Amino acid sequence: MNLLEIRNLSVTYRSGADEVRAVDGIDLDVDTGEVVGLAGESGCGKSTLALAVAQLLPRGAQVSADRMQLGATDLLTVDDHGLRRLRWSRLSMVFQGAMNGFNPVMPVGAQIAEAIRTHRPDIGKREIRTRVAELLGEVGIAAGRAADYPHQFSGGMKQRAMIAMALACDPELVIADEPTTALDVMTQAQILELIRRLADELDLAMLVISHDLMVLGELCDRAAVMYAGRIVERGQADEVLTHTAVTGPAHPYTRQLLACFPQPGAGAASISGIPGSPPDLAHPPDGCRFCARCEVALPECAAEVPALRPVAAGTTHVAACHRVASDTTLALKVAR
Ligand SMILES: Nc1ncnc2c1ncn2[C@@H]1O[C@H](COP(=O)(O)OP(=O)(O)OP(=O)(O)O)[C@@H](O)[C@H]1O
Ligand SMILES: [Mg+2]
């Protein structure tokens, strides 16, 4: 059984007179020891999905699902007491833009210690100090830096310290929302390496959100691509996110998104953007939500919502596109 199991999750925000369904009927699993990536353009609902799992959505957001389970805990019915026991110790989150989330007037080590003290009142002072040093060591920061203030840390160090904080109470699931955004390429690579090593060594389940497909392709075991509140493609990360894989991405959105990133060996002229913009989620179109921007749309695409269907026999790779054959023995690839 998967550690995190989500079935048919929807989240609706109220925005004036409108209802915005930011997440619309999503299925997603994350298992122990596995890094799962969630990709998609800005506004497609990635953070909303993460906040729904962590039960941190703003008041007024409506959640519905057939199932949202973390191990034996039903996240749909958990009460406040259960939530307090769950957060940090079983599920923790590195928030989008979190590296700026440290209190500027408190040493970094003291902030990590406070997180431990709040959630594990049973642990003594000396043990907490040892744990803080151990956590900083795990993310490659010398224990002596615990007394430093956040402004004495570089951006990459702050992000690593945030990851250390998320690990403070030995969670089973860590959700990292854009953990490498705003970092330079070298620092980004170090953070990715760190996340991968922690997931393997600590046998964590990790859900990593990023709009950067290159990042997710390198880091993740499995990946899902969201568009306008829905998952449009899902499978092993190398199948979904790399051009060189045997199957490769099947959904035109994933293909066009991937084309927005420079490919090794290709000239700068090959980089392109996706013309148009995602639909207004308060008034989403019928049929496939990518239809208006799709280079290979068929007449039925505007009318019928495509279901997630197998892309190739013998794999878990699925895509929601009318171009993908429903015949599981044949992978009908969309023309590039
Ligand atoms: N508190 C809120 N109230 C109303 N609408 C919201 C709220 N938060 C998000 N939304 C809307 O929900 C949709 C999804 O937003 P979300 O932040 O989940 O996207 P995202 O994929 O994380 O984007 P980004 O990559 O920019 O972080 C957007 O249309 C956004 O405007
Ligand atoms: Mg976000």
UniProtKB/TrEMBL annotation:
GO molecular-function terms, A-Z: ATP binding; ATP hydrolysis activity
Is Amino-acid biosynthesis one of the keywords? no
Signal sequence extent: none
InterPro entries, sorted:
AAA+_ATPase (IPR003593), ABC_Ni/Peptide_Import (IPR050388), ABC_transporter-like_ATP-bd (IPR003439), ABC_transporter-like_CS (IPR017871), Oligopep_ABC_C (IPR013563), P-loop_NTPase (IPR027417)
Q: Does the keyword Nucleotide-binding apply?
A: yes
Which coarse location class describes where this protein primarily resides? membrane
This protein's GO cellular component annotations are: plasma membrane
Keywords (alphabetical) are:
ATP-binding, Cell membrane, Membrane, Nucleotide-binding, Transport
Q: Where in the cell is it found?
A: Cell membrane
Q: What is this protein called?
A: ABC transporter domain-containing protein
Enumerate the spans annotated as ABC transporter domain: 6-253
What is this organism's lineage?
Bacteria, Bacillati, Actinomycetota, Actinomycetes, Mycobacteriales
Q: Which organism is it from?
A: Mycobacterium aquaticum
| Coiled-coil regions, chain positions | none
Alphabetically, which GO biological process terms does the record hold? Answer: peptide transport
Question: Which family is this protein grouped under?
Answer: Belongs to the ABC transporter superfamily.
Topology relative to the membrane: Peripheral membrane protein
